[in-house]
Amino acid sequence: MSAPLHPPTLSRRELLRRSGLGMGMLGLADLLGQTPASAGAIGQPNFAPKAKRMIHFFLNGGPSHVDTFDPKPNLQKYASKPLPQTLLTERKTGVAFPSPFAFQRYGQSGIAVSELFAKTAQHIDDIAVIRSMQAQVPNHEPSLMLMNCGDSIRTRPSLGSWLMYGLGSENQNLPGFVAMCPGGHPIKGAENWQSAFLPGAHQGTYVDSKHTDVDRLIENIRSPHVLPDDQRRQLDLLRTLNSNHRQGRLDPRLDARVQSFELAFRMQTEATDAFDLSREPQHLRALYGDTVHGRQTLIARRLIERGVRYVQLWHGAGQPWDSHENIETNHRKLAAEIDQPIAALLSDLKSRGMLEDTLILWGGEFGRTPSVEMSGNKSKLGRDHNHYGFSVWMAGGGIRGGTIHGSTDEFGFAATEDPVSAHDLHATILHLMGLDHERLTYRYSGRDFRLTDVEGELIRSVIA
Amino acid sequence: MSPRKPLLIAVIALHAAGLSSIPAAEKMDINSGRQWWAFQPLGKTSPPSPQDDLWSRSDIDSFILDRLQRAGLKPSPQADRRTLIRRATFDLTGLPPTRAEVDDFVSDPSPSAFARVVDRLLNSPHYGEQWARHWLDVARYSDTKGYVYAREEKNFVQASPYRDWVVSALNSDMPYDLFLRRQLAADQIEPERSPHLAAMGFLTLGRRFLGVTHDIIDDRIDVVMSATQALTVSCARCHDHKFDPIPTSDYYALYGVFHSCAEAVVPCSPQTAGSPAFQSGLRERQDKLTRAMETRREEQAARVRGRITDHLLAQFELDKYPEETFTQIISATDINPIFVRRWQSYLADAARQKNRVFAAWHAFANIAGEDFPKLSPIATQTMQTLPPTALHPAVKRLFTTPPATMVEVAQRYGALLTGIDTQWQDQQRNTPKVAAMASADDEELRQVLYSADSPCSVPDEHLANNEWFFPTNIVVELWKLQAEVDRWLIQSPNAPAYTTILADRAVPVTPRIFLRGNPTTKGAEVSRHFLQVLAGENAKPFTNGSGRLELARAITSPKNPLTARVIVNRVWAHHFGKGIVATPSDFGKRAEPPSHPELLDFLARRFMDEGWSLKRLHRHILLSAAYQQSSFGSNDPEVLAHAQEVDADNRLLWRTNTHRLSFEEMRDATLAAAGDLDLSIGGRPADLFAAQNKRRTLYAKVDREHLPSVLGTFDFANPDLSIPVRNDTIVPQQALFGLNHPFLARQAKALIASLSRTPDHSDAQLLTQLYSTLYQRPPSAAETSAALNFLNTPAVVKKSEPSAWLYGFGEWDEATGKVKNFTPLPHFTGSAWQGGDTWPDAKLGWAQLTATGGHPGNNRQHAVVRRWIAPQDGMYGITSSLIHEPTAGDGIRAFIAHGTRGLLRSCQIHHSSEQLDLDPIALAKGESLDFVVDIRDGLNSDQFLWSPKITSTEPALLGGNGESRSWDARSDFHLTSSDSLTPWQQLAQTLLLANEFVFID
User: Which residue of B415, B561, B598, B890 is most buried, as measured by CB atoms within 10 A?
Assistant: First the structure.
């Protein structure tokens, strides 16, 4: 039997050299107590991050910007008349359709927000509104892929997977990337949080937040067959067997795998704790609201507190915000479901001193048309998809609050000033999280791919 | 790459006239690019003769030893026989050897014993399964299409037939060149109904990309060129390849090949296959589809013919008619963009072919712009002088006076063609049997509207090819009919095999370069041809139809420097852990050059000489000394340390690399250990973790949209992408799967059950059986001692008690204040007690209890009851929060009852919570406390949270040291599973999880 080959005092480089399996081998970092390498991650930012974690409110279906964060009073002028220019959309639209919602200015910055997000608007001075977002086509599937994965058509890793690859997770006992959607998958399902060619460990962990049973929330988090104490004894035996097996063998994966069992054992308790809202004080549960959206938002806060890197909060299965018809009723109901939780989160994070290094993003895959959607000759009192110009907003780590970036034309159809693409948004997010979007690459199929492909400019005006 | 916005009308008009104002990119120097090693013909080096060579057994070894010696290294000792047979069996079949096979080999004195093992393994039908999976990674295999709209059947007709074809081809050692030619062009080299047509699943199993043609073709180019040539030709979609000598024109040359083909679903089984019921059911569905297609195609063509002028006018507003990526809901009254684009191509072709009908169109298009009014009279005059060969007489008559604008040109043409259509329709009504118009000139015009490739027509092809041509509601209708056919083929028991092939279209397409990859900005035309760097300086374009067979032949030509190297390298990589070229799907300039270039070429050359036989290649590799080395390295610590210093990555192969089992190998080996593995070959896929699925993991359903996340966790190849090398990660989610997923527990039970027991079998003997089955060796003394220690450690205190909690249902009896008819809930899912596997259950409805709460059954007779049994006489207090969250419904009723004394507390709540605490009360041993919830009055949104905690203050209960003892409904929830593993089963599970099971030396 050879002497132990990996005295812990060696540098990581030295250890890798001596392992006989080189830089490509994963898991050796486990000997040093880290796991990013074993999960196939770089595990550290390029420069000091402004935000260490992120929560993304994804309003799937496409919320109307002219009814929320982009007031267009000129639509009144054209009410019931055709707009001077109607752009090509997926479906037929008709005359101008002014917003049925009242807008009001908020905060010191005086930014106007509609009544639909009155509570969120209390925090407008912390928020940077981008009114000139653009997508590529007015269809859900490509736009979801573009917003989440940086490419409309091809299979590419999601933003969350890139963050996991670049930064690793701060807490080995929890999945670092969680996607919550109550009641089932959104359109395009797990593709929205896919890892594509990045290691599978970076895929998002989907949680159906409709369930109240904590044990349902993460796969395999508990054994139905073995008590924890017995499982501990199994692991002790495993350690003994693996330690014997290890002798004389050179592969660093052996130790990494042993470590992974220990991590798994700890994960069992820690993960269920994170999702257990009964541990939150009643007043906070009330602040967020005892609703499925209030609950999932509060869970998100608990997750990021525990080192989860990126939590995506979807509104619901399918595409709830896709109000082709009766937008007044539908958007009112949908906004009522999340306005309070969002406002609660912002307050809660602020009071914990966490808003300054947590990035919040709000938005959907596109916006909606200022012209009314038609069915034959009849108005549906709704709006069609609009990828030419829409709104998203950001708050928190590194964001200059109380600002507006860009604008759409007088009706809210197309972005006219400082248009922002998904690549620009992604470059900015990565930057705030301490990553250079041009340097965070992965070699696949002969090319160094990146989230922003060959594009992406920082949106400097929103960066503090 | 992201598409750019379309260019302005002026440029598009020029394109319509067949010209381009975009300058061509600087010509790439392919000749100097050809100097890269991968494009050079195979070298002819003979194996070297290393000094003092007592080690080499084969030519491979001479090459390896030579490099080792130059680096001052020595090879490692030979691995022992047990190690060798485990390694070889997993490598070749993906399965473990049996103990008997190991013993036979270990005790076989003959020097050719290993060769015989290798031959046995190569002849096993499971060889084809193992190596098929390696190919399927590269082929981006999937059983489903990926995201498609609900109207379409998401399962592929051709998936299982393709997979089974690959298995069978490898088992029969089909020559690799033929293996490739069939996958690319079986339609052209095999007879109808040939089982080899299934090979074309290789091309047609890609994602559907929402039907966007350009992306479907891109996927085909990518999979063909990555898999066979290890070239990233897809990089040239938008520009010349930045690194390799592949100009964008080569990409579009291949684009043209695939664009000249259409998908078709055809049988790949004999006429006689399939029961009469199957055949008639198929015919019925196919006829329905065919009739609907014919009708809808004709309707659509008539709609286009009815609006010729609009389609011509559309040529000046092309930006109003977006490409396929921009999907619109199209109604019958809309102009469908695809017809606008068809007219655009048709007019471009007409210009190239100097078509006399459209000569005037192009002449006027050439002078479009602000000078049109000035130049129009001149152009008109010129036109009047043209002979009939250059200008159709009717068109000449159309332009006796100058048109003022291009719009007017379009209107005149429109009127002419519409007039012809009207005449034709009248003629048809009066003399339906007459097949053409009387005048040849008129007939020529009519053909513009009615020929098979008229821009008015919908191609007569499978819906997958022509779905864009119909209004949205018609597409939905047609897909539903197609889906009926597909499902009949996929789901009928014992259905004969059908597959989706590509077949050449009647008229091949001449491709044009898409500038920056954007189909709205078209550049120069190119021919269909093979990559110039490989085809050579005097290469000719393809001339045979689409060129797909010529492409196949170019790829499989013995003169192609890449094909043999690429496959040899893939096989090498699977045997040694890393390829001679580290990037098996990229031999371009970005990739590391080969570690042993002469060896690679020697192997590739011999591979072709031996008839492109994969089995012979395996044999050469496995019988080499290099392959048979130990993975431990040298016994001498100094030699070992030196080797690690010099060649940490083991690129020179001074030892073999440890093989970690893939997910498939791990699952198969786990099933095999219990004797549980169903080794039947081929057929439809099964759900990966369905309890009754014991087939090899190769046959697990690969559903792109619903891939079990455990597969991603274990680095299974992403079915959307061609994967040459899987990732290799070690993460706690893998361990969680092993520890907690029912699969391992089930197999641990099966494994223990499979051991043969007689009354006098000692624990040590049973353990020996276990080790023999799992590791093909006896346990060491230390291992035996550790295991026996594990088995005999006193069980945890709680375990020896009868369970404190019961989970059931019953009815709350107001009169007595107790539960009546308490019945345990029969089924435990791992996280809930309920009526059965599915929830709600057919009999017990919504009744469910979980760690944190639950849901009452559908009526008051099915209240759920969490019952706690007192283990001792004592005083017990209760703390609990009952929470009912939903606003819908009328809420729930809840009761806490003493089993004997009756009701203690009750409440009714709705969308609120209530603290239900009780000061300590007396309970005798065996008496119960019931926590009961029912629906109140209405069944609606009755889920609740309630996990009470019971505390005893009786010191007697814990050995008298005065501590209170508590029972927490939530954390105790999992104590009472009837599925729990016995100590032996836990031991078996542990041995299945050990590194020895998963890492092969």
Answer: B561
B971: closest CA among A210, A215, A218, A216?
A: A215
B945/A278 Cβ within 8 A = yes
A225: nearest CB among B712, B831, B981 = B981
Any domain includes A280: no
Same domain flag for A267 and A303? no
Whole-number Å distance between alpha carbons of B305 and B302: 5
In a domain, A239, yes or no: yes
- Number of other CB atoms surrounding residue A381 within 10 Å: 17
Domain with A356 in it: what CATH number?
3.40.720.10
Query: Which tokens hold the place of B546?
Result: 């689409």
A355 plus A419 within the same structural domain: yes
Alpha-carbon span A331 to A334, nearest angstrom: 5
**Same domain for A245 and A294?**
no
- In chain A, the residue whose alpha carbon lies closest to the alpha carbon of B784 is A241
- Regions in chain B scoring below 50 on pLDDT: 1-25, 796-801, 958-960
Query: What's the pLDDT at B797?
Result: 39
Q: What does the radius of gyration of chain B's CA atoms come to, in whole angstroms?
A: 37
CA dihedral (A401, A403, A409, A412) positive or negative: positive
User: Final residue of a domain: which of A246, A274, A302?
Assistant: A274
Interface touch A250/B631, C-beta < 8 Å: yes
Same structural domain, A205 and A316 = yes
- In sequence order, which residues have a C-beta less than 8 Å from that of residue B488 and are 6 or more positions away? B278, B281, B282, B285, B495
The answer to whether position A81 is within a domain reads no
In a domain, residue A12? The reply is no
Q: Which residues of B touch A452 (CB under 8 A)?
A: none
Kindly write down the DSSP assignment for every residue of A262-323, as one continuous string. Answer: HHHHHHHHHHHHHH-GGGS-HHHHHHH-SSHHHHHHHHHHHHHHTT--EEEEE-SSB-TT--
Tokens found for residue B411: 């209107």
Residue A250: how many CB atoms within 10 A of its CB? Answer: 23
Which residue in B has a C-alpha nearest to residue A286's C-alpha?
B912
**How far from A293 is each of A298, A300, A350, B917, CA to CA, in Å?**
9, 10, 20, 29
Please give the radius of gyration of chain A, using alpha carbons only, rounded to the nearest integer. 24
User: CA B357 → CA B182, B184, B235, B337, B508, distances in Å?
Assistant: 42, 39, 40, 23, 22
CA-CA distance, B1 to A158, in Å (whole number)?
Answer: 16
Give residue for tokens 């897809």: B234
The predicted-structure confidence for B465-474, as pLDDT tens digits, reads as follows: 999 999 999 9
Same domain, A367 and A416: yes
Residue of A nearest to B711 (CA): A200
* Amino acid identity for residue A147 in this structure: M
Residues A341, A386 within the same domain: yes
If asked whether residues A136 and A227 sit together in one domain, one would say no
Task: Sort B408 into a burial class: Cβ within 10 Å, 0-12 / 13-18 / 19+.
Answer: middle
> Encoding tokens for residue B572?
């090498």
Residues in chain A predicted with pLDDT less than 70, given as ranges, are: 1-38, 212-217
Chain A: nearest CA to B740, how far in angstroms?
Answer: 4
Encode pLDDT of B36-95 as tens digits.
999 999 999 899 999 889 999 999 999 999 999 999 999 999 999 999 999 999 999 999
| Reported ipTM | 0.84
pLDDT value of position B971: 73
Considering the domain architecture, whether residues A156 and A263 belong to the same structural domain is answered as no
pTM: 0.86
Structure tokens at A153: 């058509």
Range of the domain at A351: 38-72+99-218+285-373+381-462
